[in-house]
Design brief:
2 domains, 60s Ribosomal Protein L30, Chain: A, 13 strands, Phosphoribosyl-aminoimidazole Synthetase, Chain A, domain 2, 4-stranded mixed β-sheet, 28% helix, 7-stranded mixed β-sheet
Amino acid sequence: MGGEFDFLEWIRSRQKPDPLIVIGSGDDLAAYRWPAGELMLAGVDQVVDGVHFDSKIHPPRAIGRKAMNRNLSDCAAMACLPAAALATVALPAGCGLEYARELYLGMEEAANLFACPIVGGDTSSWPRKLVMTVTILGRDGGIPPITRGGARAGERIFVTGPLGGSLLGRHMEFEPRVRMGRELAEKYRPTAMIDLSDGLSRDLRHICRLSGVGAVIEAGSVPIHADAISLSARDARTPLEHALHDGEDYELLFTCAAEVPGAIRIGVTTTDREIVIRDGNQTRALEPMAWEHRL
């Protein structure tokens, strides 16, 4: 069976030496030797059973990967390097030590791809569903962070890959665009950037609102994933609707004054505050129909 202290001791046994980690997992606080002159970026993200995954279907290692990858994707959105992570988990009572280990191994697998050590966290159990929270620390690595608020009117709008239908499986297994975000920032300096977690129609609105611009999206230029086409055959929503509104694609959406080879141009920013989509000769408002938590 095992308990909390067995789990924490197992976690400590997996810690690897790192010259930047002065005190790792096991104490009340971790200590990280921050590189001189670099900015620290911090973020936190939560996943909840029944909202972001279904523990009756998805194995614990996949759940752990998703919890970590959502935070790594936020690093990609700001073109920063993942530096360290902390994780908390509220486990359903009686789930067992092996289940907890698999959750951790999933987080570890995702973090290791980007040399991001897990330096601490907390574990508890309760009589409800699984809840996990990951806090990520990033560093600029010599490249100024890209925010959501720097877009200017007359710039091009790009995405880094096809969209829609992620609920067929990609919402659990995706690759954070960390390296792509760094490359974009270094070579092309986007003026604003965000990762597509809540859907193109909603995440584009975040950029426009914070930048004080509008946007025209060309319907025929929006890249549609094969999963969006498959899902469309089941629910009668068009593939384009899925691409615009489904969310959890975790591609990057960004604005830039120049053309960006390899990225897909889907529209332009405008001086007014309207966000519209143009399909042939017809133009209509692009309403934010993607995911939003109701409070």
